[in-house]
Specification:
The protein starts with a strand and ends with a strand. The chain is mainly beta. The protein contains 2 helices and 13 strands.
Length: 152
């Protein structure tokens, strides 16, 4: 998972099939290594026949392992941001941009210590977005699609 401030994105280039071929801007996409099988993304289409409207609601439920002060401070900053640009990689090695038009944001979070010795310890953070279109796939890895933005 890679996250940057939404205002760092200056432009997005897409091909005729809406696949994202370039993301231009400034700043840094920060990488967060999530433990395999600990997080998931769901996108739901919301359609109203009566109103003639369609929009897409996404939810990315994540787990950041281990309670640590530095991690806490980063997650606190993310939670305070109203608009984030998020790219996720699925289990097939495909990359998707979440919240392309309006940005993503933190909707919920908990810090957990676990009850038993083998229980997980860390932060559960949920990112959400509301968009007029479904998420778009990147044409390759994030590092090959960005221009002017550092990927860490």
């Amino acid at each position: 998972m890679w996250i940057t401030d939404f205002t760092n994105i200056a432009s997005i280039t897409q091909n005729t099939g809406d696949t994202i071929t370039q993301i231009s801007g400034t700043g840094t996409f920060y990488e967060f290594q999530l433990i395999r099988t600990s997080s998931q993304h769901t996108e739901t289409v919301n359609a109203s026949l009566e109103n003639g409207t369609v929009f897409y609601q996404g939810e990315c439920v994540t787990f950041f392992s281990k309670l640590e002060q530095a991690k806490r401070n980063i997650l606190k900053t993310l939670a305070q941001s109203q608009r984030l640009a998020i790219v996720v990689e699925d289990n097939n090695g495909d990359y998707f941009y979440l919240g392309q038009t309006y940005g993503s944001y933190v909707t919920a979070g908990t810090s957990v210590t676990g009850l038993n010795l083998g229980d997980r310890n860390g932060y559960n953070i949920t990112f959400g977005y509301l968009e007029p279109n479904p998420m778009n796939q990147l044409s390759g890895a994030l590092s090959t699609v960005v221009s002017g933005i550092v990927v860490e």
